[in-house]
Write a structure and sequence with these properties.
Blueprint: H1 3-6, E1 11-17, H2 23-34, E2 39-41, E3 50-57, H3 64-68, E4 72-80, E5 82-84, E6 93-96, H4 98-102, H5 106-112, E7 118-122, E8 131-132, E9 135-136, H6 137-142, E10 152-165, E11 168-175, H7 181-191, E12 196-206, E13 209-210, E14 236-238, H8 244-248, H9 306-311, E15 322-325, E16 331-337, E17 343-348, E18 353-355, E19 362-364
Parallel strand pairs: 3-12, 14-15
Antiparallel strand pairs: 1-3, 2-3, 4-11, 4-12, 5-6, 7-10, 8-9, 10-11, 12-13, 15-16, 16-17, 18-19
Length: 368
């Protein structure tokens, strides 16, 4: 695809990342394949990992910080009786304990798993992208430097045993942003008294996006792009054309001048059933004073709303609580309630709008 055609692409493509490549390399591949210059991912997957990797295109890159706060789900395989410096099989072996691993029973595994469910403290691995004094921890680790890392609070919503074929264990994990499955595996190995290292990892869900919505890099095309207005699960208001300029200028607007996307929306937002509902953002009650919470997802997985994004420490206290769209469904702004029952735009989007700067008129572009 030409770079010129790629300029018109705004939204998210969900890649089924292959093993052996970095998330940055996936971004480069998407950029070349779709011809889009503004591309960014929404959460790093290790090179050995596969699975769901949402990639933001064009103006949808403004949504990346909100998608980063989403919960994730994985299928993880680990090998007992092995400890490495990277906490996975890609690293240098530090210790082996085959006899201790052979003594581990399925009953012992099932007894150990519940202690890792809920809000836990986790020390991030040295081989990680966390920055310390301007340098990534993995850069320090490769230079032979190990530093003390502060434990981080993460939440494990679900941790289920899928299979036990000694010395391998396969687990299903649903967790909050910032969880290192490698560290979780190493901690489980310590609890079992034999050590453990991650041998395979597949991300099965990231927020609303699942493997059912993901495509291999070779199968990506324009039709794969999910529109910006269908990415976040937020209540939606339709803004008339006469107010578009005010929204883009960041001015307060009166919600009574806007309308819901449908005349009879359901009283609650639907729960994700494991498949991405592209119309999810259009199926919420429209209440400008309403602050959405994260709706529970199957297996405890949830997509981040404003409250949880703030709690995750990724977003400011000005996290959006609703989105504003044009009459034909293009995302115009993320917003939250302002003073005196008004709506205050926080982040605006101009894709697909032709702006006449000599007047206040804006119209949808007819460009393909």
């Amino acid at each position: 695809m030409s770079r010129r055609a790629g300029r018109d692409l705004h939204g998210v493509v969900v890649v089924d990342k292959p093993a052996g490549v970095t998330s940055a390399q996936v971004v480069t591949a998407v950029r070349k394949r779709l011809g889009c210059s503004r591309v960014g991912h929404t959460g790093t997957l290790d090179p050995m990992a596969t699975g769901v990797l949402p990639i933001c295109l064009g103006e949808a890159t403004k949504l990346a910080s909100y998608l980063l706060a989403d919960d994730k789900a994985y299928e993880a395989e680990l090998e007992l009786g092995l400890e490495t410096d990277t906490l996975d099989l890609d690293g240098e072996v530090l210790a082996r304990a085959p006899d201790a691993a052979a003594a581990v029973t399925e009953a012992a595994i099932r007894a150990a798993l519940p202690r890792f469910v809920g809000v836990i403290q986790q020390v991030p691995p040295m081989y990680s992208a966390i920055r310390l004094d301007g340098r990534r921890l993995h850069q320090l680790a490769r230079a032979g430097v190990e530093v003390e890392r502060e434990p981080r609070t993460v939440t494990i919503h679900r941790l289920d045993l899928l299979a036990f074929e000694p010395p391998r264990i396969r687990l299903a994990v649903a967790c909050s942003k910032g969880t290192y499955v490698r560290s979780l595996v190493a901690d489980l190995g310590t609890a079992l008294g034999c050590g453990a290292a991650l041998s395979a990892l597949r991300r099965t869900q990231s927020g609303l996006f699942t493997l059912a919505t993901a495509a291999p890099l070779t199968d990506l095309h324009r039709a794969s792009v999910i529109e910006p207005a269908r990415i976040l699960s937020l209540p939606t208001l339709v803004v008339p054309a006469a107010l578009h300029r005010a929204v883009l200028d960041g001015r307060l607007i009166n919600p009574t001048s806007c309308t819901p996307p449908s005349e009879n929306p359901p009283s609650t937002a639907p729960v994700c059933d494991g498949k991405l509902n592209h119309g999810l953002a259009y199926e919420c009650v429209i209440k400008y004073e309403y602050t959405p919470s994260m709706a529970p997802r199957e297996g405890g997985l949830r997509a981040a709303g404003a409250d949880d994004a703030e709690e995750a420490g990724t977003l400011s206290g000005d996290a959006p609580t609703l989105q504003l769209v044009t009459p034909d469904g293009a995302l115009l702004a993320l917003a939250r309630p302002g003073p005196d029952a008004t709506i205050r735009p926080l982040r605006v989007f101009t894709y697909g709008l032709t702006i006449d700067r000599s007047s206040a008129n804006l119209a949808r572009s007819n460009n393909p």
